[in-house]
Amino acid sequence: MKGSYTPGAEYSGQGLRIGVVSARFNGEIVEAMRSSAQATLLEHRVAEADVTCIHVPGAFELPLACKTMAETGKYDGIIALGCVIRGDTPHFEYVCHGCTSGIQEASLQSGIPIAFGLLTTDTLEQAVERSTGNSNKGRDVALCVLEMVHVLKSIPSGG
């Protein structure tokens, strides 16, 4: 077996290089998630020097930055963080759909796991709830990217 993977286990991030792409729009919400994600990576032994954080204007720009980061070959995994709060126009659906499909496509094309940390909420209160305390989704996506790196490393290569 190429590596080992145990569902539900805590995974070490030692030696892993992780990229974090954060949207500046709804910045306080996203920054709270980024802080939680970074703290979680450090708790799981990812060296601070092995975490690269970049910022993009908004959620719609996340896919291109994630794809570009993945294509460098420097990262074992990437975390995408953003927040879109529903308004009175269809803009919410367009941004959410474009961001979601773009991040998925970037991950599939590159073979690098990109953890999806885009909050899509109806209200600011829901966004605050999902970016603070024990409900902070930043922690969840950090754990997700670590697990996915281990999952992919455990898959035997052909031949």
Write up this protein.
The protein has 159 residues and is an alpha/beta fold. It has one domain (18-153): 3-Layer(aba) Sandwich (Rossmann fold), CATH 3.40.50. It has five helices and four strands. It has helices at 27-43, 62-71, 91-110, 124-129, 137-154, and strands at 18-23, 51-56, 77-85, 114-121. A four-stranded parallel β-sheet has the order 2-1-3-4, with helices on both faces. Helix 1 (27-43) packs across helix 5 (137-154) and helix 2 packs parallel to helix 3 (91-110). The longest helix is centred in the middle third of the chain and has 20 residues, at 91-110. The relative contact order is 0.22.
Brief synopsis:
By secondary structure, the chain is of the alpha/beta class.
